[in-house]
Design brief:
By secondary structure, the chain is an all-alpha fold. It has helices spanning 2-22, 25-34, 43-59, 70-93, 96-123, 127-146, 148-159, 167-186, 190-217. The chain has nine helices and no strands. The longest helix is centred in the middle third of the chain and has 28 residues, at 96-123. The protein starts with a helix and ends in a 30-residue tail after the last helix. It is a multi-pass membrane protein.
Length: 247
């Protein structure tokens, strides 16, 4: 019974998370249209790529016991495709100095991923040890990512404007965190429960702050077309890219 419920929750979480992964499409549509990355930062997308790959590896049978985390693996696989596409587009339209920086960061991320895969495949010989190793890295990555929205909260409080914290982005982030927290609880998996539980708290905080300051502004909720406005704040997340969507 619990397994069936967990599977259903995983599917719901996957759908919401994929929608969240797709949000930057709006930003990169603008990048392609203008043939320039402008002041946008690629750091959040590189970090999200690292996070998606780490959690995808966590859900793979080599680390997890069989396909117990199939939903997680599938979601992160889609996330890797999205984030890789965003990084490639960014590199294509970025000026030379930014290209060098992004290529360097991507190289470091790939090197770290190779180390993680190698250690968990050939040095650690049980699923438990592999889950502890990869899950710990994923938890630290996700926790640092969830600290990113606090920068937006600080900006809203300072300026008394919700311009840089779109309502729907905050809402979907909360839904994603809540769903994966429930998925982790049902599977008794602390590595999924802990970071997403923290994500729920930051998501609730964002919505509370939004409600308070949107009344001050008397402005309608931001639509998805405004989400690209927060891209510049994402650099503060060096955060931590990291379900992704972060599961």
């Amino acid at each position: 019974m619990v397994t069936s419920i967990r599977f259903i929750v995983g599917i719901i979480g996957s759908v919401v998370c994929v929608l969240l992964y797709a949000v930057p499409v709006l930003t990169f549509k603008r990048v392609v249209k203008e043939a320039s990355v402008g002041e946008f930062s690629c750091v959040p997308y590189i970090l999200a790529l690292f996070s998606a790959f780490t959690w995808g590896w966590y859900g793979f049978p080599i680390v997890s016991d069989g396909w117990e985390n199939l939903s997680l693996f599938g979601t992160c696989a889609v996330g890797v495709l999205f984030e890789t596409s965003f990084v490639i587009v960014y590199i294509w339209f970025a000026p030379r100095d930014k290209k060098k920086f992004v290529v360097l960061m991507v190289s470091l991320v790939v090197a770290m991923l190779c180390v993680i895969v190698s250690l968990s495949s050939f040095i650690l010989h049980t699923h438990h040890k592999r889950k502890v190793f990869v899950g710990s890295i994923g938890t630290v990555t996700s926790m640092s990512m969830y600290c990113g929205p606090l920068v937006a909260v600080k900006q809203v409080i300072r300026t008394k404007s919700v311009e840089f914290m779109p309502f729907y982005l905050s809402l979907f982030s909360l839904l994603t965190s809540f769903t994966w927290t429930l998925y982790g609880i049902l599977g008794r998996d602390p590595y999924l429960t802990a970071p997403n539980g923290a994500g729920c708290l930051t998501g609730i905080l964002q919505l509370v702050v939004y409600c308070i300051y949107s009344r001050c502004n008397n402005k309608p909720p931001k639509t998805v077309n405004d989400i690209e406005l927060v891209n510049d704040l994402d650099i503060a997340t060096s955060r931590q890219d990291t379900n992704g969507c972060k599961p």
